[in-house]
Amino acid sequence: MLAANEMILSHLINVSQMMDAGTSTMGQVARAKAHASLVVREVCQLAREVCGGNGIILDNHVMK
Question: What is the rounded distance in angstroms from the CA atom of residue 17 to the CA atom of residue 23?
Fold first, then answer.
């Protein structure tokens, strides 16, 4: 998972730098956001699966 996180971070940094320079398109921004959201959902799903029901109970720090 660490490699996926690093990949997403570098992709988002690249797209944000392109936005600052005015060379990005809305399609690039949308794809970066969609891909990051997809991977984040997968990571959260895996964390909930590993931690069992403790991942969705407010009393535990897993959810935070």
Answer: 9
- Between the CA of residue 43 and those of 28, 32, 40, what are the distances in Å? 23, 17, 5
pLDDT average, residue stretch 34-38: 92
List phi, psi (to 5°) of 25.
-110, 165
d(CA 34, CA 8): 11
How many Å from the N-terminal Cα to the C-terminal Cα in the chain? 19
Mean pLDDT for 23-52 is: 87
Is it the case that residue 18 has pLDDT exceeding 60?
yes
